[in-house]
Amino acid sequence: MPVPVPELGSYNYVEETKENLDWADLVTVDLSQLSTPEGKRAQADILISALKERGFFYVKNFNISQERVNKQFALGKAFYDLPQEEKDVFTVKGIERGNYNGYVNNKRIIEEKTGLRSQVEVYNIPKFNGDFEHHHPAIIDEHLQEVEEFSRSLHSEVLDPLFVLLALALQLPEDYFTNIHQYSLKSEDHLRYMKYNKFTPEQNKLIENWVHGHTDLGSFTLLFRQPVAALQIRYPSTNEWKWVKPQDATLTVNACDALQSLTAGYVKSTIHRVAVPPKDQQHVDRLGLLYFSRPHNDISLSTIQGSPVLQREGYTQNEFEASGNPVPTMEEWTFAKQKWQRTGYEKSDHKTAQILPGWKEKIYA
């Protein structure tokens, strides 16, 4: 007898914090301004300034309705509302090898003195381009076409325009980055529903951060607005930690490791963390909707040749090249870092472990 599929309800956002936090000063890229060369140039200037100085920025007018976004949040909530044994069926197989598509409930220790463990759950959905199998619980299967359309829209409506602007800023052909981020070709992109289960007030007093400082491993990460304040970024110039404020009708976007390697550090992969939320939001769970963009698996992370900007500014060698070690492909980099992130975190040398020849990863405060 078929198992009944839960009805997908609406998604209600919690109220924003009333606390006066030390918010980051982030700029906004407006994708409605790209219809003219002048508009493109202006937005490219805004983008590259943000990437060099902050690493994080907002994007508005990205042509995806709030109704579609709300539907994805509702799907994420419906998944996490399933009984634990149903979620466990979709646990990632091969996590020790760096695999990550599916469900992860990795109870790593986040507070060494007390032994408190993470309460973060993750569900990753890969591309719909024929390279990946799709096995999902019924609540997601029932809406899989919408999930695919949403994922593809993030490429065509958000990522492709951002990659065009980045190419313009580096004085490269407009299609330089879109050519290495084609949806039809194999890459480890994925849509993520991410739930930060709340701690008790007593536990929160013992915790410095729900997720320690880190960088993302791909090109751009897209984070949809959710009002529980917790995301903090570290300014590259001053090392100050700042809160990221939820902005209506925007995406929060950050640059990641692959772009830093491709530009030899001209674009910064910004360190960020998930702090304990303000007291007036500690009583609720925090649900995230994210998309992780990555170059094709076979792309070498060598410094881009042919950019007058990188040549002029002296960004001609990334850390692999400068050390004389082999430059990894995106696939090699992805699985090396994913393996490090998901396993071995209780070993004494994990915080500064070498994951590839010439590269030590680091966990930040």
UniProtKB/TrEMBL annotation:
<feature type="domain" description="Isopenicillin N synthase-like Fe(2+) 2OG dioxygenase">
    <location>
        <begin position="196"/>
        <end position="293"/>
    </location>
</feature>
<dbReference type="InterPro" id="IPR044861">
    <property type="entry name" value="IPNS-like_FE2OG_OXY"/>
</dbReference>
<dbReference type="Pfam" id="PF03171">
    <property type="entry name" value="2OG-FeII_Oxy"/>
</dbReference>
<dbReference type="InterPro" id="IPR050231">
    <property type="entry name" value="Iron_ascorbate_oxido_reductase"/>
</dbReference>
<dbReference type="Pfam" id="PF14226">
    <property type="entry name" value="DIOX_N"/>
</dbReference>
<feature type="domain" description="Non-haem dioxygenase N-terminal">
    <location>
        <begin position="28"/>
        <end position="123"/>
    </location>
</feature>
<protein>
    <recommendedName>
        <fullName>Clavaminate synthase-like protein</fullName>
    </recommendedName>
</protein>
<dbReference type="InterPro" id="IPR026992">
    <property type="entry name" value="DIOX_N"/>
</dbReference>
<dbReference type="InterPro" id="IPR027443">
    <property type="entry name" value="IPNS-like_sf"/>
</dbReference>
